[in-house]
Specification:
Elements: H1 6-14, H2 26-42, E1 46-48, E2 52-55, H3 67-76, E3 79-80, H4 81-89, H5 95-110, E4 114-119, E5 126-131, H6 133-147, H7 155-167, H8 179-191, H9 196-216
Antiparallel strand pairs: 1-2, 2-3, 4-5
Helix pairs in contact: 1-2, 1-5, 1-7, 2-4, 2-7, 2-9, 4-9, 7-9
């Protein structure tokens, strides 16, 4: 399996066969933004005091695909976690989200996991990232191996599991027979205090979704 990060694996799993995120998949873009912040926290590039994010150390060279998120935190710090997620996912245009997808997508191209293509359009071309089925399956099998077997879960798999569950993309990778064990694992993850930061990130996604629903109703 290729050594992909949390954010790279998440994007690879939620892209459709045409290399895009679904037009009405707000949960997916919110979770992609949250995954980016979580990865920077796991790398100690950012710090979180329970309320706000600040830059803690220079952006690692191997994480340059997260520069769009890092730079916004750097510019706005101290800044709320949900404000960063909102900046990328709930802006008036898709400009910020497209920048983030292009940055992560380019890193996936370099890893040979997706094929980049440019689509036409009234306002010029836009990149799409068509996932290689073999690489998607490799990520999925890695998640399944940890979730369906006894033992400690890695931090990346916990975060990836919770975000894919929130975006509605997790259960399609499990059979009806396996979903009972999956449900049990999800409960364990949620109740484990070591996963507090990841759980908080999912709660931020929930709160933003609620705000959107209220605003359009």
């Amino acid at each position: 399996m290729k050594n992909l990060s949390l954010t790279q694996q998440y994007l690879l799993c939620v892209l459709n066969k045409n290399g895009k995120l679904p037009a009405f998949g707000l949960e997916k873009t919110l979770c992609l933004s949250a995954a980016s912040v979580l990865e920077l926290l796991m790398e100690d590039a950012l710090s979180f005091d329970g309320k706000k994010l600040t830059v803690q150390s220079p952006l690692p060279k191997e994480k340059t695909y997260l520069r769009p998120v890092y730079q916004v935190v750097e510019r706005k710090q101290p800044v709320k976690f949900e404000s960063i997620v909102e900046y990328f996912s709930l802006a008036l245009t898709d400009k910020h989200m497209n920048e983030l997808i292009d940055s992560i997508g380019t890193s996936l191209v370099q890893n040979g996991c997706v094929q980049r293509e440019e689509t036409g359009g009234l306002f010029g071309g836009r990149n799409v990232y068509i996932p290689n089925e073999v690489d998607v399956d490799s990520v999925v099998q890695s998640i399944r191996a940890e979730l369906l077997e006894d033992g400690e879960l890695s931090e990346d798999v916990v975060a990836l599991t919770m975000l894919l569950h929130k975006s509605g993309d997790l259960q399609k990778y499990f059979s009806a027979y396996e979903k009972k064990d999956l449900k049990k694992r999800l409960k364990e993850i949620k109740n484990n205090p070591q996963n507090k930061m990841i759980q908080k990130a999912v709660e931020y996604v929930d709160s933003l979704l609620c705000l959107v629903i209220v605003a359009i109703s």
